[in-house]
Specification:
This protein is mainly alpha-helical and 154 residues long. The protein is 64% helix and 4% strand. Strands 1-2 form a two-stranded antiparallel ribbon. A hairpin with a 7-residue loop joins strand 1 and strand 2. Helix 2 packs antiparallel against helix 3, helix 2 packs parallel to helix 5 and helix 3 packs antiparallel against helix 4. The longest helix has 30 residues. The radius of gyration is 20 Å and the shape is extended. The relative contact order is 0.12. The model has no long low-confidence stretch (mean pLDDT 76).
Length: 154
């Protein structure tokens, strides 16, 4: 298992080093979050959770990520056609690449919370976190919390 994990991490690092734009698909991420909330809706029968406001927020998030990825596609296209461009154009392209990568990193950092709130000093992500129910698995922290709310456990 460790060998496979090491190979996977090696491939991920090679992909990230080889690609001038970080290979994160924010639209897939937002779509997955929408899927998790939809799954929760099917489990929720009695709670007071306001799924309508979650849907509005997730729809805005998906819309924003689609627009951002269209921008990233244009930047990639400019990059592919940049063999014989001047210094000024190269500097503008470099700024576009930096801004796109900075936004990708900032998006992920939005999901970092207080270490103490997770109950694990070493884990800060509010979407993905070690399970408080299953010591051997990890689940979606947000999904787990919502499920516990829906089931009346909280």
């Amino acid at each position: 298992r460790r060998v496979h994990g090491g190979r996977l991490m090696g491939l991920l690092v090679l992909r990230m080093v080889d690609d001038p734009v970080l290979p994160f698909n924010l639209t897939d991420y937002a779509g997955a979050m929408r899927g998790w909330v939809n799954e929760l809706k099917t489990l929720d029968t009695q709670s007071q959770v306001d799924f309508a406001s979650m849907d509005v927020g997730l729809n805005k998030l998906v819309e924003a990520t689609v627009g951002f990825h269209e921008h990233v596609s244009r930047v990639r296209e400019l990059l592919d056609n940049s063999k014989d461009i001047g210094v000024d154009a190269a500097l503008r392209l470099d700024r576009l690449l930096r801004r796109a990568n900075d936004k990708l990193v900032q998006f992920e950092s939005l999901f970092l919370g207080d270490r103490r709130a997770s109950g694990k000093e070493w884990f800060r992500h509010v979407i993905y976190a070690p399970s408080k129910i299953d010591a051997y698995g990890s689940v979606l922290s947000l999904l787990q919390t919502l499920f516990l709310c829906c089931s009346g456990s909280i």
